[in-house]
């Protein structure tokens, strides 16, 4: 029977989860996991409902139990769960109690090794306690930092145990094969299936990958530092704003872009005085391919940048310019396809005097920008993302974008945004 595909219903709404589960099963999903968010939002009734909908399928309750193992296992098992998850970080007595309760109610225990320091040692220990499965789990928040489950660690765990090993955390059709090859018996997939408009097709692709067929997909892909140009180019500034909790928005500058054009790059900062274009132009010589020149002028209304500077910047690979001040020659700059944002567009330039500096921390419309921070701009606006959190923000932004795909599909099928999100039900209780 191995390997099996376990679909993780890590969703908030039961109605949507049922529909997605059916489409996943149509695509070949073997086991159905009632995810932790779904259990927390809809309670044990979500387990009862999924059990009634899928009487012939193995149902997993991802309770992530840390205490009172016996009681929580009893609740989940009576509600229809075949397998209940307990955390590897839980006390030994909690795991032992969970195992005994599971035997009493005809269920099994899977131990989740999320954040366990010595996973091999703990896996061997919990097998001796009588658990049926061990799960190597890379949490969603860890995935957003570009982390993934180590296949070498997986191989060590598999070789140390006689029970099946599950693996979860950011698995997609593009990566499922490597985990099967490393010995995983249970492939747990959430976002790699549930975030698409074609759930059935996505599940089929994962099953193909599990059988050794190479599948190319960017769905639910997690990006690292070296991939950030690609990652930020795939999302909009609204996606980033949602993912970054509305932080980093630079307000008050006007975009000068061709239709559909986007600006993505690392900031090279410049401080200058109103009308003094010396340091902005000198910065071009210090720029490298992929930079966005960010000029702080304190809102000045005399141009510090124009068409010749833009042409010069394009030669060295500068991706755009952001000016908390004035720009000129905007018609020629737009015709050249060079992205720019500014507070003013004027015909008059100042003089090259040389005040200010390059590469220093600046303030643009009340937002701090440092050289190396990420600047993303499109027709919706402009955002700065600090370099220290860029990988996480990029991955979370992609997650926002991908989750919208399923919402969009449900709307196309005849629902509405309010109905999809069950807004009336989930308004704050007063």
Q: How many DSSP H or I helices?
A: 18
Describe the biggest sheet? Answer: 9 strands, mixed
* Percent range of helical residues: 25-40%
The total strand number stands at 19
Per the principal axes of the C-alpha atoms, what is the gross shape?
Answer: elongated
Structure description:
With 430 residues, the chain is α/β, with parallel strands linked by helices. 38% of the residues lie in helices and 22% in strands. The protein is built from 18 helices and 19 strands. The strands form 3 sheets. Strands 9, 10, 11, 12, 13, 14, 15, 18 and 19 form a 9-stranded mixed β-sheet that branches. An 8-stranded parallel beta barrel has the order 1-2-3-4-5-6-7-8, surrounded by 8 helices. Helix 1 packs across helix 11, helix 6 runs parallel beside helix 8 and helix 13 (237-243) packs across helix 17 (390-412). The longest helix has 23 residues, at 390-412. The protein is elongated. The two termini are 50 Å apart. The mean pLDDT is 95.
Question: Brief overview, please?
Answer:
Helix 5 (92-104) links the parallel strand 4 (83-87) and strand 5. The chain has 18 helices and 19 strands. It is an alpha/beta fold and 430 residues long.
What does the secondary structure layout of this molecule look like, with pairings?
Blueprint: E1 4-9, H1 14-26, E2 31-34, H2 36-42, H3 45-53, E3 58-65, H4 69-78, E4 83-87, H5 92-104, E5 108-112, H6 119-128, E6 133-137, H7 140-143, H8 151-160, E7 165-168, H9 176-181, E8 186-189, H10 191-194, H11 199-210, H12 228-233, H13 237-243, E9 249-250, E10 254-256, E11 263-271, H14 278-286, E12 291-296, H15 307-315, E13 320-327, H16 330-336, E14 340-345, E15 357-358, E16 362-364, E17 367-369, E18 374-378, E19 381-385, H17 390-412, H18 417-421
Parallel strand pairs: 1-2, 1-8, 2-3, 3-4, 4-5, 5-6, 6-7, 7-8, 11-12, 12-13, 13-14
Antiparallel strand pairs: 9-19, 10-14, 11-15, 11-18, 16-17, 18-19
